[in-house]
Every structure is written in structure tokens, then in C-alpha cells.
Amino acid sequence: TPEEPNDELTVLLDSLRANLVERFDAWDLTGALEEAWEVVRWLNRHVEAMAPWQLAKDESRSADLDAVLYNLADGLRALAVALSPFVPRTAPQILAALRQPVDLGLERIGYGLTPATDGIDAAAPLFPRVDQPTAAA
Known about the structure:
Elements: H1 7-25, H2 29-50, H3 52-55, H4 62-83, H5 90-97
């Protein structure tokens, strides 16, 4: 975990589990997905604002780069668990790509639960593009 946890992400991930349970109990699957998408949108804004590709060019900012990358990996790990009821085959693939244990228990949704790993390699696309044949004119 980074020396200074990201407060916004901590609140989002730590409340995600309870919000999902509440939505599932009410059979509100669309609302449950919206809870997860809120985290996706936050992670997207965070990566754009922090620009890890720029941080990587400055050795004096290595701690900042580590924190950004950890927060992204931690958020993706939590999302994989949160979305596992919707994408049961894909969630374990996401965790494997992040080199994380495949534990889909709801207690795994929260901030700072991603154990350290020795690098993450590029993974095959989870949802490969399907090109539809075009009609002949």
C-alpha cells in the first residue's frame, strides 16, 4: 500500500461493498452496476490527472508513480470482485492478469487489499473485438 492512501479512493472502495449489497438486496442490478461504474469513472479521471506515463520519466517522482499504479491496481482488483456476479468468467481473468489471488468474496472489496506483486505483464484482451461481416453492395 502507498505511504499515503488516497482518501477519495478509500471512501469509494470501502463503501462499494455495502452499496452493492444494498442494491442486490433490492434486486436493483442496474443500480449495482452504476455503483461499480462510479469507481471506473474515478479511476479513469485519476489516471488522466496523474499521468503515470509522465511520472515514469522523472526518477524523483517514483513514490508518486508507485502510489498511482497501486491505486489503479487496487481499484481494478476491487472492481473485478464487485463485477464478478455480472462477468463470472472474466473476473478471475482480471485478477490473474493483476497477479492477485482469485478470491471473489465480497469482503475483498475495499481499499488497500491488493498484496504486492512483481510486475504486471500485458494481458490478452478480455473482450476481443468481433468484426461483423459487411453486406456486399
